[in-house]
Structure formats: C-alpha cells, structure tokens
Amino acid sequence: MSTTADRIADLAARRAEVVEIAEKRAVDRQHAKGKLTARERIELLLDPGSFTELDEFARHRCTDFGMADNRPYGDGVVTGYGTVDGRQVCVFAQDFTTLGGSMGEAFGLKVLKVMDLALSIGCPVIGINDSGGARIQEGVVSLAHYAELGMRNVRASGVIPQISLLMGPCAGGAVYSPAITDFTVMVDGTSYMFVTGPEVVSAVTGEQTTLDELGGPAVNSEVSGNAHYVGHDEQDAVGWVQTLLGYLPSNNLDPAPVYAAPHGPEPTERDLRLDSLIPDAENQGYDVTEAIRAVVDDGDYLEVQPEYARNIITALGRVDGHSVGVVANNPLVNAGALDIACSEKAARFVRFCDAFNIPLITFADVPGYLPGVAQERNGIVRHGAKLIYAYAEATVPKITVVLRKAYGGGYAVMGSKHLGADVNLAWPTAEIAVMGAVGAVQILHRKALQGAEDRQALAARLVDEYQRTFSNPYAAAERGYVDRVIQPARTRLEVSTALRLLRNKRTVVPTRKHGNIPL
After folding, report:
1. Which residues pair with 183 in a beta bridge?
2. In the prediction, which pLDDT does 99 show?
3. d(CA 168, CA 189)
4. Contact, 308 vs 225, CB < 8 A?
C-alpha cells in the first residue's frame, strides 16, 4: 500500500519527466530551424571545458498568468565566463527554448551581473541574442532592465570590447544594446533585427513587407550598415568573432596580443608587385587590397563591414606581429569617393581603434566627396565631418600612404598631416591637389582655351604644366605635408619602421568631459 510520501514522489517524478520531454521538444524545434541552443553556442565559442556558469538556478519572480507553474531554472539566459584561445571573456546567451528567451527581472539581473563582472576585471563581453523580446507578463520591469543594459553598454564602451552575436530574432527595445556594442554579427537565414515587425509596419503605415526585407542580414549588412559581418551559418559567425578577438586587447589599458613577425627586412615578391599596381590610365580602377596584403603580415586581414559602403575598406591586420587598423579608399567602387555611408563607417572604425590603442594605417586614393543633390540633402556636410572629427581626435600612431590621388577635401580628411597624422608617405604616382589636372585647367584657362587655334594641344601642355607644378607628391613634400616619397615596393618596410618609431608615442590632450562629434 502506497503512502502519501510515495504518491508525492511519484507525482514529482512524473512532473520532472513531463518537463524533460517539453525541454527536449523545445531543443528539437530550435535545431529544426538550423539554430543551436544557448549552451551549444557557448561551447562552440569558448575553449573546451573553460566555461563557468553563473546563476544557473535563477528563476523568474512572476506568479501571474500561469507562470508560477514549472518555473524553469536559468530564466531564459545562460551567463558565465570562460576563455577564447586562452584569453578571458565573459558571455551571455539568450535561450529561446526557455520562455522564448524573453527578458524579465531575473534574466536582466543575470545579464547585468556578468556585464559588471567583465567591466571590473577588464575582459571582452560577448552577447548571443536570440529572444522574443520583453517579457510581457513582467511589464515595466522588463523594460527597465533593457534600459539598465544600455547603461552598462555605454559605461563599457571604449573600456572593454563588446561583441553582439545575433543568432535569432532581435526586435524592439532589444536592438539598441547590440547597436551600442562595438561589433554586431548576424547569421544568414536565421537572424533578423528591427525596431518594429512587419505586422506593426503594415498596421501603422500600410506598407507590406517581410522579415527579411525589413531587418534580415542582407539589409542590415549592405543597406543600413547595422551588421559588421554575416555568417553563412552559426559556426561561421562564431569563427569570425574568435578571429576578431585575436586582434583586440582585453581592455583599453592592456596591449593586443603580439605574434612573431613573419617577414625579414628585404622586399618580398608581394612587395615588388606594388611597383606596377597603379594603372597608367588616370581613371582606371585597381584592387587596393593588393596594397593592404603587401603591408600586413602574411597578407592576412579581417575586413569589417565588407558589404557596406564598399567605396572604403576598414580592416584589422598585423604588422610585425602587432595589431593595426586599416582604412583604404576603394577605387573599384565610385572611384573611392567619400559619401555619407563610408564617412560614418570609417569614422566609427577609427574611433574604435583609437579607444583600444590600435595604430591606424590609411591608404589614400580619393577624388574627394561624392557630389549630388541626394548627398547634400541627406547631410553630407554633417556626416562627412564625422570622419574629420574621428581622425583629428585619434591619438594613436597614424600613418598615411597616398597611392594615386588625394584631391580637395578628400586629401584633408584621409589621414592628412593637418589632422595629426604622424608619418605621411606618398608613392611617386601620387597627385595631391585641389582637383585633377584636367578639371583644373578647364577652370583656370577657360578663356585661353576658348580662343586657341589648337585647343587640344594647348590643353595638353597646360595639363602637363599643372601636374609638374601642383599635382605631384613633391610639391606637398616641400612643405612637410608628406614626410617621404617612396617606391611602392618599400611600403611595408617604411610602415614597419614608422610603427616601431611610434610604439611609445605620447600625446597630451586638453582636459574636457568629452567632445561634441556632429552626430
């Protein structure tokens, strides 16, 4: 005959079995979508066996709306710390299989706790987002913790690297935390990010759209620029983050990891190819990544926002084993002209490198700012000024190499001596002037050309005269605006020498609370 205790034990066992079956079904649904679980993602990211979980037994406080029954441990988020390539990181991973990964009070407190831990010990923090958003049952408490998380992001900005991995939905107030972090990574086919979903957009504006059209990876990486990389699957996205961490210091006071230098003091075959990189035709494009590969160790670099504002390239690499940031105009897209999107892209990258003491190398080949009614009406004056501000504000070692042309405002903003660059180099092919020779001659000698018997011959002579007088690197070098005119094949060696010179650079800046960048 069973006792009351036996019946209670039997009911508890049955209840545990039901919970286990429900959890397995939730995991199966996650896998069916091509998504890993929160714990699987952490295991993929961190070194094997290095993860230590925090607050594993936390539970939500809500007793309304039937949530008091079968309260799950963890409350929809897994938090803790571990290592990536032996270096300490903190991590939180939203668990969509538990309460849809929605944020409530216990969830929020767990995330804030691990953020505070990362800031106190000075290590990167990585957030893995896959959530249904605010937990409706907990009302304003959920919203309060989103705001608290934003406050933590701001306090940590420029102090520790912050990385967001979006591996599922991220909508509403939840999107602003990833937007503040330094890098946002999405996954093709499974993640999306927007403020309001298609149903709300349709109800408010009447526009018909889809999840992908509104906030899919392609839109965020190519159009809005919210995403810094899109992985073709979760493993690829995690691999990109692991590679990224290898270029970064743990915090703004520690140096980035240093590796053995792979090259000697003699030019390599890749170096020598730079002598023929610039085409003879003035308007013909070329692949500026050849110059980047020649300078960075092993020709290896990690491009940031590769699909957004492609007229400028931003990347992390190494020179002599030390991390560097690279900014380069891309002549293959809009001739490398500066516009609103690329100005913001480069400005944010420059400020990130400056915050974490990563030296900057700039490859300039720029015809100036992109003209047009749309650019002017959308604020090219204000947005373009962000790049000037970023370069002028940066105190890290700054080295600029002018490859072919640097005209007008483009010359000034792309790491010129006047914005505080430490070492400015130029190839013999460089043209540094207000504008190109052909256009300048048409303006300066309009009347003479109109009255000439052989207009073409006169124009050719005047263009040649202008180039010899103004648009060559030696005119700028005479005034100290260019420190050295070098053979292209010596670029890596010259950059390496300059970085060694500037390794212990010291800068005194005015005391202030902060500047007022034209946002």
Report:
1. 163
2. 81
3. 9
4. yes
Structure-block tokens of residue 368: 């100036």
Q: Which positions of the chain have pLDDT values less than 50?
A: 18-19, 65, 68-69
Does residue 365 contact residue 405 with C-beta atoms inside 8 Å?
Answer: yes
Domains of the chain: 17-247 (3.90.226.10), 269-434+472-502 (3.90.226.10), 437-470 (no CATH)
**For residue 431, what are the β-bridge partners?**
405
Sheet of 125-129: strand order equals 52-54, 77-84, 87-94, 125-129, 162-166, 183-187, 229-231
Yes or no: say if 73 and 38 are a contact pair by the CB < 8 Å rule.
no
User: HSE-up of 309 (CA within 13 Å, CB side)?
Assistant: 27
User: Which candidate, 125, 129, 136, places its Cα nearest to that of 67?
Assistant: 136
Matching residue, tokens 């990167």: 124
Burial class (CB in 10 A: 0-12, 13-18, 19+), 462: buried
Distance from C-alpha of 358 to C-alpha of 363, rounded to nearest angstrom: 16
d(CA 444, CA 195): 52
DSSP code at position 64: S
488: buried, middle or exposed (CB in 10 Å: 19+, 13-18, 0-12)?
Answer: buried
Write the pLDDT tens digit of every residue in 143-168: 888 899 999 999 999 999 999 999 99
